[in-house]
From TrEMBL:
Signal peptide start and end residues: none
Name of one Pfam family that matches: TPR_12
PANTHER family hit by this protein: RAPSYN-RELATED (PTHR10098)
PROSITE patterns, sorted: TPR (PS50005)
UniProt-recorded name of the protein: Tetratricopeptide repeat protein
InterPro entries: TPR-like_helical_dom_sf, TPR_rpt
Lineage: unclassified sequences, metagenomes, ecological metagenomes
Length: 218
């Protein structure tokens, strides 16, 4: 085991132990309990640990991810900045703070374009734009969600990402359903189901079938 990996496990154990002290229902991880250790934690460990906490302990994730975010900015590390911004966005999403989530998903997408090769950054960018679109759907701003998901759809098609293309089609169909435009909803959901059958992913097939059934049973 490398020193880097050992550091990660030490950080993970540290975070878990502290959280256990405050109980499983605790959602607030006091910043003053971690400030003294942040300097000793590697950027990678902060990123991985915060990502693991984003759903179950979003406030804790925000503390760790913001520390990573600052480190990434100070070192001009766009790849790490993209990861940190995504975790911050995820944490805000799980706190139902969709406007804040949108801000950081967009920043994560932009940082990814500056960081990697065209295909990798393109895939990541499409995923984050899809995240933004989903937040707009949660806010009930369906037209905006459709436009953004359409961007993700075009990127996914260009990169031959079959499963992600199906997800984008599903999401667009769902937005049309919420708008009451049922014919368009069926059009996109049917296309999604056809792709899911090609991929053979039973979970995706189940989702697309369920969505189509939702439209017909309205």
């Amino acid at each position: 085991m490398t020193r880097k990996n050992s550091g990660f496990f030490a950080v993970s154990i540290f975070v878990i132990l502290i959280l256990n002290l405050y109980g499983q229902e605790t959602r607030h991880f006091p910043a003053n309990r971690i400030k003294g250790t942040v300097k000793a934690i590697t950027l990678d460990s902060l990123l991985v640990s915060s990502a693991r906490l984003a759903e179950s302990h979003p406030d804790s994730a925000l503390t760790l991810a913001n520390a990573a975010y600052g480190m990434a900015i100070n070192t001009n590390d766009n790849k790490s900045l993209a990861a940190a911004a995504k975790t911050i966005a995820d944490a805000w999403y799980y706190k139902n703070e969709y406007v804040n989530a949108i801000t950081y998903y967009n920043e994560s997408a932009d940082a990814a374009l500056l960081a990697g090769n065209v295909n990798d950054s393109g895939s990541y960018y499409a995923d984050r734009i899809s995240d933004v679109a989903f937040c707009y759907m949660q806010l009930g701003i369906y037209e905006k969600a459709i436009n953004l998901e359409g961007i993700a759809l075009r990127i996914n098609r260009r990169l031959d990402r079959l499963s992600e293309t199906g997800s984008s089609l599903n999401n667009i169909g769902n937005n049309y359903f919420y708008l009451g435009q049922y014919d368009k909803a069926i059009q996109y959901l049917t296309k999604a189901h056809e792709l899911d059958l090609q991929s053979g992913d039973s979970s995706d097939i189940s989702v697309s079938l369920n969505n189509i059934g939702m439209v017909y049973s309205r």
